[in-house]
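Subject: design request, 58 residues
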């Protein structure tokens, strides 16, 4: 996959994930987050935010 296409796919993934969070669709968020861990890891601060969200859901 070309670099630009890969970046576009990562942005689409982040948009979908943020939509799931904004609409409290946590099950879908966690399923997609698990499939796209590599995308989340490159966003600064994501790990601490996901840990915080997980603590809220527990």
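Subject: RE: design request

Done. Sequence follows.
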């Amino acid at each position: 996959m070309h670099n630009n296409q890969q970046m576009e796919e990562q942005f689409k993934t982040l948009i979908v994930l943020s939509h799931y969070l904004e609409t409290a669709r946590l099950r879908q968020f966690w399923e997609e987050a698990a499939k796209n861990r590599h995308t989340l890891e490159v966003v600064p601060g994501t790990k601490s935010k996901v840990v915080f969200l997980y603590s809220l859901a527990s």
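The mean pLDDT is 82.
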